[in-house]
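Backbone Fold Data
Goal — fold tokens
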Amino acid sequence: MSADGELHLRQILLPEIGAAGQDLIARGTAAVGGAGLASEIATRYARTAGFGAVAPGAVDVDAWAPESVCVHAAPRAVVAGARAALAEIRAALGRDRYAPRTDGVLTDGEERPS
């Protein structure tokens, strides 16, 4: 197994990702790069997930981590960055992104945990 395969073994073993999904991620580009803590976190998560490239892209902290989730700036940025990176992973796998919403409902109708 290659070094990349070993690095992403946990993801490859997940039925919802698998080797084919990891290949899609590796060939994909995550549009989360930019200035600020949220983009730094999103970029780190995207690179760790195995994206082949990271391109400039906005991470909307207010949308991905509304104050109802967390009121302090640094933790909000971390949550927003992580959620933005997850959305990029879902998109690379051909799944719908969870669009950021502030009303407590994800775009697929699933309720956010309280």
The longest helix spans residues 73-92. The radius of gyration is 14 Å. Confidence is low (pLDDT under 50) at residues 104-114. The chain has one domain: 3-92.
